[in-house]
């Protein structure tokens, strides 16, 4: 049962880890006056935000008893269908708002002053992004529903949740690893990442939302 739940949450965690708007701040923080402290604080905050949302939503799911053993699996299935439909809607909206050829992709306004962030503000930004980003919330809710409906013990829920969080935060961790491994050469590589991610953010997320929206709808229909 644990392996089946992990199999459900892993693809969802990939939506978070591949999201350009989670990765870009980590890259930008590597170019500040505190090129290691700020990104590490941002990563710590992001881990905390993603984990907090999953714990709260899983606890809520456990409280209302979504376990298949008690005949409540249909609620988890309905929730997945709703979330899957939302992802399809978000995919269309993202794709329609993509930048045209040669147009630079826009970033959220909160990233404008990121070069001047203090370590504390970087921590807070990571926490807020991990916990409050609507797309992270949707995926976290779907993952929490899968964990709650899996009929797992508390220890098994912790393991499944830990796997989700570790995979979900890898995208934010990756630029830091590149910086540590490549040293001075990392700036050129990361700047290339930044430009590509900004330009292709909408397209990448549209594809991800379509794929995983369909996956969620399929899982939900199977569970109703």
What does this structure look like?
Helix 2 runs antiparallel to helix 3. The protein is 78% helix and 0% strand. The longest helix is centred in the C-terminal third of the chain and has 38 residues. It has one domain. With 224 residues, it is mostly helical.
Beta strand %: under 5%
- How many strands appear in the DSSP assignment? 0
User: What is the averaged pLDDT score?
Assistant: 86
* Tally of structural domains: 1
In the predicted model, the low-confidence regions spanning at least 5 consecutive residues are none
Derived structural class: mainly alpha
Query: What's the SSE pattern?
Result: HHHHHHHHH
Estimated helix fraction = over 70%
How many DSSP H or I helices?
9
Instruction: Using the CA coordinates, give the radius of gyration.
Output: 18 Å
Q: Major beta sheet, specifics?
A: none
Shape: globular
What is the straight-line distance between the termini? Answer: 18 Å
Assembly classification: single chain
Which terms summarize this structure?
single chain; 224 residues; mainly alpha; 9 helices
């Amino acid at each position: 049962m644990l392996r089946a739940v992990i199999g459900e949450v892993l693809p969802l965690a990939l939506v978070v880890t591949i999201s350009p708007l989670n990765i870009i701040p980590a890259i930008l923080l590597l170019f500040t006056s505190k090129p290691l402290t700020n990104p590490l604080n941002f990563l710590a905050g992001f881990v905390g935000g993603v984990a907090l949302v999953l714990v709260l939503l899983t606890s809520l799911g456990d409280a209302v008893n979504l376990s298949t053993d008690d005949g409540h699996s249909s609620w988890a299935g309905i929730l997945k269908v709703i979330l899957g439909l939302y992802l399809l809607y978000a995919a269309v909206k993202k794709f329609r708002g993509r930048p045209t050829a040669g147009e630079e992709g826009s970033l959220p306004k909160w990233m404008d002053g990121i070069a001047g962030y203090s370590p504390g503000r970087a921590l807070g930004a990571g926490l807020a992004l991990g916990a409050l980003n609507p797309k992270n919330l949707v995926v976290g809710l779907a993952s929490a529903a899968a964990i709650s409906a899996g009929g797992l013990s508390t220890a098994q829920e912790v393991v499944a949740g830990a796997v989700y969080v570790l995979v979900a935060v890898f995208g934010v961790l990756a630029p830091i690893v590149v910086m540590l491994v490549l040293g001075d050469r990392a700036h050129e590589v990361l700047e290339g990442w930044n430009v590509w991610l900004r330009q292709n953010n909408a397209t990448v997320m549209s594809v991800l939302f379509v794929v995983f929206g369909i996956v969620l709808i399929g899982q939900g229909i199977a569970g109703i």
